[in-house]
Every structure is written in C-alpha cells, then in structure tokens.
Amino acid sequence: MFSFMFEQPKLGHRAALEKLARDTGTRSCQYAFPAVYSLREKYDTELCLTDNAAFLRSLSRTPGRVDYFAPLCPADRFADALACVEQFAAAEGRPYAFFGLTADQAAALDMYAPGRYRIIEDRDWAEYLYDVQPLATLAGSALKQKRKEAHQCRNHLGDRLTVEPLQAQHADEVLSFQHKWLAVHDETGEDASLAGENRAIEIAMAEYDALGLSGVIVRIDGEIAGYSYGCVIGRDTYDILVQKAAAEVKFLYRVVFQESVRLCAQDFRYINAEEDIGIAGLRALKLSYRPAFLLEKYRAEVIEA
Question: What whole-number distance in Å separates Cα of residue 305 and Cα of residue 243?
Fold first, then answer.
C-alpha cells in the first residue's frame, strides 16, 4: 500500500519525479517536473512521492473539486495506486475526480472499478507528439508551407536575425520581453490564464538551471523577439513548455519552433508540443505540423449513488 503526504512541489522533488518518468517511459507533459513546479501556484498543485510512485493533484483546477492526475507508477501497481487514492479521497471527504488519464489508464480504471466512474474524453487536453527530424528540417511535402514561411521570415530579416541558446544569465532579458508580450496580448490585464502562465514563466526563469531547462532566444537587431524553453520527459521525449514570439514579425513563430527543435531536441525521438486547450486556431496550427500521434486524455468523474 501507499502512504500519502501531499505538499507543494519543491526543487528537491525533481530527481525522484524524473527517475519515475524515465522508469515508466511516460511521454506526457503533465509529469514534466519544470511544469509541475512552475505551475504550482496557478493550479494549487500538490505532489506526493512515495513507494516508487508519484501522485499529483490540483486543488483549484475545477472549482469545488480536487483533481487527481493519473498516478505515475509501474503498470502492475496502477490498480493499487488507484485504490489508495480512493481511500485517501474518501477520508478527506472532498469531491474528487481523475484528470489526465491516458486511454490505457482510463481502461484500467474502468476495469478496476466498473460503473464507479463516468469516463469522458478530454480532447482539449490531448497532447501533440511529433517526430523530431521532420520538425528540425521542415523537409518533405507535408511541411512544405511551414518550410516556405520560415524561409520567408529568415530571408526578410537576413543578418538582423540571430539565434542562440537560452541560458540562466538571460532571465531578466527574457522576462522583459515576456512582460511586453503579455501587455500586447492582455491589454486589460484581466486574463487569469495568461497571468498564471506569466507567473509560471517568472518562476521558471528564476530557477532555470535548477529545473534542468534548455531553450533558444531569437533576436532581431540584438533584441529578443522570441524565445522558447523546455525539458526532457521520460526516455525519449522533449517537451516544449513555453514558446513566444513578437506577433508583428510575420512567421517568426515558425523560426522559433524550428530552432527550438534543432538546438534542444536532436537527441530525442519525439517533441511534445502539449495541448491546444480547445483554442480552435491553436488546434489547427498544431495539426498542420502533422503530429506523429495524439496522446489522448480522459477524465473520470465519480458517479454518485
């Protein structure tokens, strides 16, 4: 059985969570430690590491409910992990649900507790997984338009455009650009989602090396005009956590994305570009890059007797 003690994620948890991610071979961005750590305020995240398993939960993702992520543990211990979550949740006495289940995990939950949960596909939270090499080169007919657009941006800017690795020493400079980007995209300052993301970026920049992040900076005339950073997930996947570019520079996002892959992800099999969270334009864009597959996600809500 598992023993539970949930607490806010700390930098000291990184090694254990990353080892579990490697051991289980997960490719899901929900277990990327830098995301867990930097988004802990936005989602009121708590983490429990125990007995070769990791349990994550959000206290504020859904009002009035605790959302437990699928336990990260060996497959042969998954049923036991689910049972312990149920017992712990029952003892707490708060409404709860499971969030971020893969198709296999949803099936395992349904087998373990038939008829106890309403299992619902969360298409908005499906993760986009891409083969690395096509994105690094943009070669082939499927990505011809993306290649043309990135080339157009580079040709237009010429030597004014430079690319370099993002390092911890660039944190203040990146945040200066990020705050300008936020002001453009949230003129009223009332978008809670963008504010939460901005806070996560501030946290990530403050602990860049400690979180094991890597990234790129794209400059125009020496000034940051775009940046991206990410981290390793599991054994063979690189997760692009954040990617920003000046909206007024046509097709600059194409360049930032390609350079992120070329500089940070060449040693990996897949790129995880995370979810589209139901934004139609973002979904169309991510599909247009031709993902190798979608990592489908499900939630499971308790069926009240």
Answer: 45
Q: How many CA atoms lie within 13 A of 147 on its CB side?
A: 11
57 bridge partner residues: 46, 68
The pLDDT tens digits of the residues spanning 93-125 come to: 999 999 999 999 999 999 988 999 999 999 999
| CA distances to 141, 148, 256, 257, 268 from 262, in Å | 19, 17, 10, 9, 11
Task: Write the Ramachandran bin of 130: left for phi over 0, alpha for psi from -120 to 50, otherwise beta.
Answer: beta
Q: Is 84 exposed, middle or buried (0-12, 13-18, 19+ CB in 10 A)?
A: buried
Q: Are 238 and 257 in contact (CB under 8 A)?
A: no
CA distances to 175, 193, 272, 300 from 28, rounded to whole Å, are 27, 21, 8, 18
Return all residues near 305 (Cβ < 8 A) that are at least 6 apart. Answer: none
Give the other-Cβ count within 10 Å of 101's Cβ. Answer: 25
Computed from CA positions of residues 248, 254, 259, 260, in that sequence, does the dihedral angle turn out positive or negative? positive
Distance of CA 50 to the CA centre of its chain: 23
Q: Are strands 65-69 and 96-101 parallel, antiparallel or unpaired?
A: parallel
pTM: 0.95
Residue 30, token pair as written in the block: 């929900």
Distance CA 59, CA 192 (A): 16
Distance between CA atoms of 101 and 36, rounded to whole angstroms?
Answer: 16
Give the pLDDT confidence of 12-60 residue by residue, as tens digits.
999 999 999 999 999 999 999 999 999 999 999 999 998 789 999 999 9
Q: Give the Cα separation of 94 and 96 in Å (integer).
A: 6
